[in-house]
Design goal:
This protein is of the alpha+beta class. Helices cover 17% and strands 36% of the residues.
Length: 189
């Protein structure tokens, strides 16, 4: 389901496209005609972790994803936490692993979802126990990893380069196969 903001979060009035002068000139945005509130539609920060356990990289499969699709651990920041605290929390919540070191890889656009991905490399330890959100995981040696052409895949590629590995990306056909069914509506029981 695609979510759109349609009503003012302050007074409940339906929003309208209204042009106002801003620092960059006249800009049309969803605004409240009653109280003047503006829906800025700023990108949401999302955290991603390249999780290294015993020298291998953990990729996980979300319960909503196709069988062949594995990716980085990701999640949203919570109010009051730093990005580093947030990624350590996400790794713990989703895998039960404890982060022992954390370093920034970079920031990546994910325009389709209106998100900015803040990616980290974390070294973690412990026994993997997946949250209900995840249904499978695999541990990969660096030379076994293939990157995907999206935000977290580019983060993985950048990190691999720092480790002396030239990244290999899925071909368009391979990527389509690993994503097959992802854009389909959920099956009805």
């Amino acid at each position: 389901m695609h979510y759109e903001t349609r009503f003012c979060s302050h007074c409940g009035t339906p929003l309208a496209l209204i042009t106002q002068t801003e620092d960059s000139g006249d800009v049309q945005r969803l605004r409240c005609p009653a109280c003047g509130w503006t829906h800025w539609n700023n990108p949401t920060p999302v955290l991603a972790a390249i999780v290294e356990v015993d020298g291998k990289v953990l990729l996980a499969r979300n319960a909503a994803w196709p069988v062949k699709m594995f990716a980085l651990i990701t999640g949203f920041m919570e109010a009051g936490e730093s990005p580093q605290e947030g990624i350590a929390r996400e790794v713990k919540e989703e895998t039960n692993l404890d982060v022992v070191s954390c370093s920034l890889v970079g920031a990546y656009e994910f325009l389709r979802m209106n998100q900015v991905i803040i990616a980290y490399h974390v070294v973690a330890e412990g026994q993997v126990r997946l949250s209900p959100e995840l249904v499978d995981y695999r541990l990969f040696d660096l030379h076994e990893l293939k990157c995907w052409p999206a935000g977290t895949g580019y983060a993985l590629a950048d990190w691999l380069r720092t480790r002396g590995h030239e990244p290999v990306f899925f071909t368009a056909e391979e990527n389509a196969e690993r994503r097959r069914g992802l854009d389909q509506p959920p099956a009805k029981d």
